[in-house]
Amino acid sequence: MKSLARRKLLRLGLLSGVVSIFAATSGLAKALLPTPPETEGPFYPVTPQDDKDFDLTQVTGHKDVAQGKHIMVTGRVMDMRGQPIPQATVEIWQANAKGRYRHPGDPNPAPLDPNFQGWAIVLTDKHGEFRFKTVMPGAYPASKNWMRPPHIHFKVAKEGYANLTTQMYFPNEALNENDLLLSEKKPSERLLMIARKKEPSAPEALDMYEYVIVLEQKP
Ligand SMILES: [Fe+2]
Fold this sequence. Notes:
219 residues; alpha+beta; Protocatechuate 3,4-Dioxygenase, subunit A; four-stranded mixed beta sheet; four-stranded antiparallel beta sheet; 3 helices; binds fe (ii) ion
């Protein structure tokens, strides 16, 4: 791994975890594990919308902002050697703060929030970095005995790499323990699917979560 990439990973606080997981499970030295895929789920957006920018808390033309706790999600898309992937498409969609998707098929009776964008598509910059301002998604019932923990759905694409559809989880959420999807994963995979909370830069700053995405190169 080049030293620049290593320094950036260290800055993100992720190097030791990701590399040691890899070292323990594979003979291919100095490569990162690809981010585990997860099901797209039933609520991929189907209603066209013009505003899909990085700020999901503000819908163009609306005076009010989204309800709930506003957060920042930042991260990087990189290859298995730790090199950044610029100009990758990063798409997210999620439930609002009350656990409701803006999707006609969502049976959750929780209210829609007209000021929550719910869906965004951005490109990574030249360092492979991206960011979203959004709300902490609410938990929601997936069935009678299953509450989904807060999560954000991701689709990531870049020519030359395998498309990735996955879900990002939040640290220290009790519902993570019993989630039927997350608990199916190996502990090493789970670690790669849970974002890391970053210390706020100032007391009034938004809570910030970091999520590193590793794509597999197409053979
Ligand atoms: Fe979901």
